[in-house]
Write a structure and sequence with these properties.
This is Porin. The chain is mainly beta. The protein contains three helices and 22 strands. The protein is globular, with a radius of gyration of 22 Å.
Length: 382
């Protein structure tokens, strides 16, 4: 077999390594992107800090800040886990557009440690293909509007007030309308103990519909609805019920500034809200599923001080409607958080920032936990 010239191989390697590089081969465009981000986080947990490597030490996860008695309350964490890279191809097939996209980062893993190398495995964020109006693969749930997320230094930002799920799905888009069937997964609170049971035996996918629209003033909004079959089938329980919810999100320009918000309500939303702060249903005394209601939202105002300096002010929260006679009192009740930051971009791809956040969570039994955190970040977009 005839080998490719060394110069061609070298050119291909340089192309793959170059940030935001775009090449064209025939009718296919290739693009590599992502960013490098380093964080230094000073955290104060009211009940004692979680162990090193715990999710709450990586970013704010509602329901994980109750702490561990006996540990010190104040800790500092250095990390570059949020660093990510992606690869995209776009192909013109006789008037049809075929796109492939994959993105990886290093968050949420506990297989590394901070003792020597701080090595963490990459994980899939997005992996999907689109063909004209169809999308198949893993990406943001259609129930979520990621464009409305605030510009916070915390990995999620407003985690307790927003839907936040990435999962495999089949989606059809036509103008502002989107319709999708997505991966089902039911989380249930066991009778009176509140312990989480994950049921993976459902046969019906989650069904989502969303409509995106814009106004003449440049504001963009989305309205989404979801229907779910909640199923729990194991050696102890065998039941199913319906869950549903709605979400309204938007971005409103105010001159150069903008206002972002999301409001979400539902019965049986479970894992779709607040990073699974509450479960979708609880098991009653007869072994039947009883849906759990929840409501959450956030509002974030971003102000540009000048071309290089900007700040975001964010308030977020959610509340769970537990039937404590069924769930017991050892379940999450509500979560609230607030953020203020100052970001500086000396050039478009480079940003330095500092952010203060405060979060408080409580359970039905009266146990609560507070987190005060200051984050310093440096981010370079490839």
């Amino acid at each position: 077999m005839k080998q490719a010239p060394v110069s061609l191989a070298l050119a291909s390697a340089l192309l793959a390594m170059s940030g935001s590089a775009i090449a064209e081969t025939g009718k296919t465009d290739f693009k590599f992107g992502g960013y490098i981000k380093a964080d230094v986080m000073f955290s104060d947990y009211s009940n004692g800090a979680p162990e090193s490597g715990d999710l709450s030490r990586q970013f704010y996860v509602p329901g994980t800040i109750y702490g561990k008695a006996g540990n010190g309350e104040q800790v500092v964490d250095f990390q570059a886990r949020e660093t990510r890279f992606n690869f995209k191809t776009t192909t013109d097939l006789d008037g049809h557009t075929l796109t492939g996209f994959i993105e990886l980062d290093f968050m949420t893993h506990t297989d590394g440690n901070e003792r020597v190398s701080n090595s963490y495995s990459p994980r899939i964020r997005h992996a999907f293909v689109t063909y004209d109006n169809w999308t198949v693969g893993q990406t943001w749930t259609t129930f979520q509007n990621p464009g409305a997320l605030p510009e916070n230094l915390d990995f999620v930002g407003a985690a307790d007030g927003t839907p936040f799920v990435r999962q495999a799905q089949l989606r059809y888009t036509n103008g502002g309308f989107q319709f999708a069937v997505e991966n089902p997964e039911t989380t249930v609170s066991d009778y009176q103990t509140g312990s989480r049971i994950v049921g993976g035996s459902g046969m019906m996918p989650d069904v989502v519909a969303r409509y995106n629209f814009k106004t003449e003033g440049g504001a963009s909004f989305s309205v989404a609805a979801i229907g779910r079959q909640l199923t729990l089938e194991n050696s102890n329980y065998d039941d199913s019920t319906l869950g549903f919810g709605a979400s309204f999100a938007g971005v409103i320009p105010l001159g150069k500034d903008d206002l972002k918000f999301t409001a979400t309500w539902g019965e049986g939303l479970g894992r779709y809200m607040g990073l699974n702060f509450a479960n979708a249903a609880s098991v009653d005394a007869d072994g039947q599923l009883d849906t759990i209601g929840s409501f959450g939202g956030f509002v974030s105002y971003r102000h540009w001080w000048n071309e290089q300096w900007r700040s975001s002010f964010t308030l977020s929260g959610m509340k769970v409607d537990n039937n404590v006679d069924i769930t017991g009192e050892n379940v999450n009740k509500d979560a609230y958080s607030a953020y203020v930051n100052l970001l500086y971009s000396p050039s478009k791809p480079l940003t330095f920032g500092v952010e203060y956040m405060f979060a408080t969570n409580s359970k039905e039994n009266g146990v609560d936990g507070d987190l005060n955190r200051v984050i310093f970040s440096a981010k370079y977009v490839l």
